[in-house]
Task: structure prediction
Amino acid sequence: MTIAAQVKRIAADARQAAIAMARLSSGRKNDLLIAMAEALIAGTAEIIAENGKDLEAGRKKGLSGAMLDRLMLDASRVKAMADGLREVAALPDPVGEVTRMWLRPNGLQVGKMRIPLGVIGIIYESRPNVTADAAALCLKAGNAVILRGGSEAIHSNLAIARILQGEMAKAGIPVAALSLIPFIEREGVLEMLKQEESIDLIIPRGGESLIRFVVENSRIPVIKHYKGVCHVFVDAAADPEMAERIIVNAKVQRPGVCNALETLLVHRDAAATFIPRIAATLTELKVELRGDEEFRRFAPQALPATEEDWQAEYLELILACRVVDDLDAAIDHINRYSSLHTEAIVTGDYGHAQRFIREVNSSTVLVNASTRFADGGQLGLGAEIGISTTKLHSFGPMGLEDLTTTKFIVYGDGQVRQ
Result:
């Protein structure tokens, strides 16, 4: 059977499985997720062994340190996947929720009810934990899911999917509701993007080139974010110790992720005291600084920043830095260069905080907190399916509700339209 025929069969089977998923009770879905979590823990050694094959292949291919970090699984990360499944199981089931009801003058009661989207295709790179996260969220929301991970994680993804599917089979739930494209040829992605009769939504997770490829080739609606150019603005009224702690966490903890800090903005009135402090700390932590002329006055170790730096998603220990005149200038810079992902202000001024929240148009805006909190798990959604910077359907980290839509429900007692 050709790749095209196999993908078409996988999509058609998922469509049928989605019908069964939509009918499952909350109890059965929750029991399944808990069993899956236990199976992941029991299969930790198998998962790590298969992940080791991917890591070895990645090193031979010359993958960057950031890419290898995304790819790597150890016992703690497997446990985090299992914990994510349990968290999703504990969340309220959105399916069947009536979000509002209203009475029409003719006596009709009209409402809106949450229903599953149907079949969701996830195309992702590197991070094998997405296999478990996506499965948990899609299944809990009553959907079927088709997963297509990157070639660099094929052994890890197949192992995780195999363990999860085993629990579905034990529970009598159609295994086709969780499908993983088992081959690495790009043709598989292209064929998947043609299955508009079977797949309702595509969510790509990965680098900008992958996401643009998906958008350009898909016949199916796509939820996307191209990159994470995340900003922190240190206001004149910022606590310097708090600002330093937030910046270090946002930039250094995991520089290769989309919610890592990429551009630092400092209020002119705080520049002389704060910049030498933060520059020394970041330099000690091996962060390469690229600053405008004013920033470099106080941090001569910084390289000159160019226009491209304000638009860059480095995904490594490089940080673009700029001095701005005031809050207005900071907001203008962010709204010009932002990728609509995540922005933060550090300030003790309530009015400035409120203005920043109102006037910065990104999908997650924080006050006195690290950009690293732009994550579904950290925001209380359980594991996230991804982050959307498209404003239609969903904006920001996507959890269970974002994997449903609503239909109108109408109760009458014999009304006919005049």
Remarks:
- The chain is about 45% helix and 20% strand.
- The longest strand covers residues 109-116.
- Residues 230-376 form a domain with the Aldehyde Dehydrogenase; Chain A, domain 2 fold (CATH 3.40.309.10).
- The first helix runs from residue 3 to 23.
